[in-house]
Amino acid sequence: MRLLLEYDFSMELYYQVLNFAMIVSSALMIWKGLIVITGSESPIVVVLSGSMEPAFHRGDLLFLTNFHDDPIRAGEIVVFKVEGRDIPIVHRVIKIHEKENGNIKFLTKGDNNEVDDRGLYKEGQNWLEKKDVVGRARGFLPYVGMVTIIMNDYPKFKYALLAVMGAYVLLKRES
């Protein structure tokens, strides 16, 4: 009888670990699918500062696309990465500089900022190019990203939340 109980427990633990692995791999597949569908390396981002208020607030979740055939226009909200900075920036295109050969350079600014973003770009860079764009804002959910901000601001909370979720998945019994 004892051998049977140990076998049942080990099999159940095995199935729970397998279930957890399937959840994680499903989430990764969904993320990769979104990357392919949207054309953006990061199809979902969280607004981390108040520089775009009143259009977007800290904690808003933005949905991005990045189709290279779409021209960038003044007034459009883009998410861009600058060399030397890890975190993408969400700001509005305020000026377009189009060359005769069709290449486009543009300047950005946060709606709530006094000056343009030239101070944020790498040294000597005055304009952004299409290669700097991670995506363009197509929609948003207000304040949904606050969970991400809280987890970044309080790492212990993040680890506790992950531990509770992991324990729940591993210890939950199927009925």
From TrEMBL:
Record-level Gene Ontology MF annotations: serine-type endopeptidase activity; signal peptidase activity
Family annotation (InterPro entries): LexA/Signal_pep-like_sf (IPR036286), Pept_S26A_signal_pept_1_CS (IPR019758), Pept_S26A_signal_pept_1_Ser-AS (IPR019756), Peptidase_S24_S26A/B/C (IPR015927), Peptidase_S26 (IPR019533), Peptidase_S26B (IPR001733)
Membrane topology: Single-pass type II membrane protein
Domain of life, per lineage: Eukaryota
Peptidase S24/S26A/S26B/S26C domain sequence ranges: 36-122
Keyword Transferase in record: no
Keywords in alphabetical order: Endoplasmic reticulum, Hydrolase, Membrane, Protease, Signal-anchor, Transmembrane, Transmembrane helix
Transmembrane annotation, as ranges: 13-31
Presence of keyword Transmembrane helix: yes
GO BP, sorted A to Z: signal peptide processing
Any one GO cellular component localisation term in the record: signal peptidase complex
Known role: Catalytic component of the signal peptidase complex (SPC) which catalyzes the cleavage of N-terminal signal sequences from nascent proteins as they are translocated into the lumen of the endoplasmic reticulum. Specifically cleaves N-terminal signal peptides that contain a hydrophobic alpha-helix (h-region) shorter than 18-20 amino acids.
Family stated for the protein in its record: Belongs to the peptidase S26B family.
Protein known as: Signal peptidase complex catalytic subunit SEC11
Organism in which the protein naturally occurs: Strix occidentalis caurina
